[in-house]
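Obj.: predict assembly geometry.
Materials: sequence records (below).
Method: joint structure prediction, all chains together.
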Amino acid sequence: MKEELAICDTCANENCFIKKHLHLEQMKQYVSKKHSFVCKKSQPFIIEGAPLQGLYFICKGKAKTVKTGINGREQIVRLTTNGDTIGFRGFGTSKRYLIGAYALEDTILCNFSNETMMDILKNVPEFTYALMLFYADELNKSENNIRKIAHMNVRERVIDLLLYIHKKFGQNNNGLIEIELSRKEIADFAGTTEEQAIRILSSLKKEDLIKTVGKRIGLLSPSKLQSEIMEHKYF
DNA sequence: GCATTAATTGGTC
DNA sequence: GACCAATTAATGC
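Observations (raw structure tokens):
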């Protein structure tokens, strides 16, 4: 039953790198070599500093990737969901993972071994080219994040996060964003402490800009929030 | 139902 | 804006 979890042929993730190139005849042999499994909520599937074990793709679910700082403080680097890929950094250049990854909910993952990935990269130029474009895009995002952390204050970074998850995960018909992050995780993303994140959420709530139901957050006025961080969006 | 964990608030540096 | 303490809410077992 485990291997039945994720079949690329019937997968709905059109944005997945594998799925996008599945029409190529050569890809079929590699796809059959992948290994898929379930990672339970809040469990890690990549340990920071552990030896590389290939590339992971999210078939269904959500995950965070983190970097651990000096005093045990974590920085959330990226949030990922269906079709996204994880563990691509350090590929070829490093023997160990430079990030850790945790499931934010029960998540079905697909794993391609180092050897399989190497074969694909060497033999399927379309795939390699697409991955290069992806890297370039990720680098750009990473540079934007540096700027954000340098120039934005905490309130602005929290607002930025809210708009980001709003855009990435969407809002359901109750007006709540389709992801559950703990206050700690919000803080880890915004590069601050849990208390500070809570205070900012509280004031945003008082200002009628957001609403909260348990861990879920809803944006009442995305445009107002957007305008508050507008000055940082020059690009 | 109890026990551990998360969220919140207030205060100090 | 971080760190600590106290209280309350939520969640796991």
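Conclusions so far: Chain A is about 40% helix and 20% strand.
To do: check interface contacts against the pulldown list.
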